[in-house]
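Need tokens for this chain, all 122 residues.
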Amino acid sequence: MKRFPARSSVLVVILMTLVVVTLLVVSPLLLVLMNNVIAVDWSQLSNIGQSFTAVSAILSAGALFAVALTFRLQAKQTRLIQFTAAALRDLCSIPAGQGCVPAEVITSRCAISAAQGVGAAL
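Here are the structure tokens for all 122 residues:
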């Protein structure tokens, strides 16, 4: 996979910004031209647009809920990682010369701690 240099990403952002600004400036002119070519009932189109506004608000609320849920899940995951790291630090803090604790012991001790409710607040 080829990676773009930082300059290319900045150039893409500037180009996309120019495209969006150009479309915003040109769209009212295109609507005026369209009105001259085709007879358009703007009040009916306005009513249709208002109905889409309600749908848009509902979708935006759903997206905001999804973002809040994602933040909550990330916080839980971070606490779980911190708990696991602390447990591993405690398990591997044995005096020098005795080696490290085998993986089976670490797994069983973490499972016992979680079962006893140490990780229940996560």
